[in-house]
Amino acid sequence: MVDSGTELGADLGKLWLCGRAYLPKIADAFLAGNARADGTATYDGAFSRTGTVGPGYEVSVPGPVQPAWTAARDELQRVMGQTATNIYAASDALIRVTDLYATADGSSAELSREISKFMDGTQLPPGASNYVPVEQPGDRPAVKQPGD
After folding, report:
1. Do 47 and 69 touch, CB atoms closer than 8 A?
2. Domain parsing of the chain, residue ranges
3. pTM
């Protein structure tokens, strides 16, 4: 049977919660990994070796492993950043879909009531153990890119 009215509003409210709270939390985990990978760039010197660049001139030069390590680290950082960006986009899409569907179906009032319950933390879906703070799109930290 197709949901409508209050039941549809409740289902849309859960979808909205996924887009506004749960998916951004997942994206935040990828952003944390992105930042940690970025932080390892300061240790590139560990792969350097002393080399001669001319008569009597010894300097630090990249060791044989450094280019492969740097490429692997930079790719991991890019992938984690892009994944976070994609999850945020999916989050935004879920919110937009719930708004559009509620408007088209005439369930906007029910959706608004469900959203207000989630916003004050008084009602969460079954299995949710604690209140998940609702994140606004402007609250999102920036993705770090290799070399930033």
Report:
1. yes
2. 5-139
3. 0.72
